[in-house]
Amino acid sequence: MYQTQYKRPTSIAEAAGFIGQSEGEGKYLSGGMTLIPTMKARLAAPGMLVDLRHIADLKGISVSGRRVWIGGGVTHFEVATSREIEAVAPGFTNLAELIGDPAVRHMGTMGGVVANFDPAADYPAALLAFGGTIHTDRREIGADDYFLGLFETALEENEIVTAVSFEAPDASAYEKFRNPASRYAMCGVYVSKRGTDVRVGVTGAGSSGAFRWREAEAALSASFEASAIDGLTVPQDDMIGDIHGSQEYRAHLVTVVTQRAVRKAKG
Fold first, then answer.
1. Number of separate domains in the chain
2. pLDDT tens per residue across span 20-39
3. Which one of 5, 27, 40, 48 counts the least CB within 10 Å of its CB?
């Protein structure tokens, strides 16, 4: 059995101070949906856990006009039940409703998901589709520049995700094909329409994590109909292949789930 220290800071500065004292052995803990199971499996053994869940500056949801700001410590349940977000981006609250189960939704946080960038995480698809912004304790990073690859982001060492923000589009929707056991996305697609500009974020299917499907964006910007992407496919070699579905199967899912998301966005 290994030992670890538990720290419960009340400010971002205090959290950063604890990590500095850990001499490279500390980890930030947000929702713990990935870190705690990893520790239980003895795949990680941080010497210090710095719990971010009690920092007031990481809490809160703000909607001003169509501009949405969500603190890094906000839980999925809080997003799913936010009437303010639902009023301008109902697709986003629907996305949060589809994450995991009640226990996960009450513990998992926006900042934890965005910092970890699991290949099946839901929020990254939406942030890419919105052209959102990731805020940290050091800077602001556009979503297109933030998500770099499987479990890889633009975050520097010990940088904290403090919030995300985006401008709510004219119409949007999320459609998710779930693994029946885990409820993780085998393919999730967020479609966002602003004027004639359409953006499509895909998660769960790509071997490098969430990505924008630009060919579909071009077709849907010309005609916002599900039939506009008939015949379009994503490269199979870029897809995840595992016991739950082959690369070919997931490539097919991307087209099907995107069409469903378009129909949902059109109401």
1. 3
2. 998 888 999 998 888 888 88
3. 40
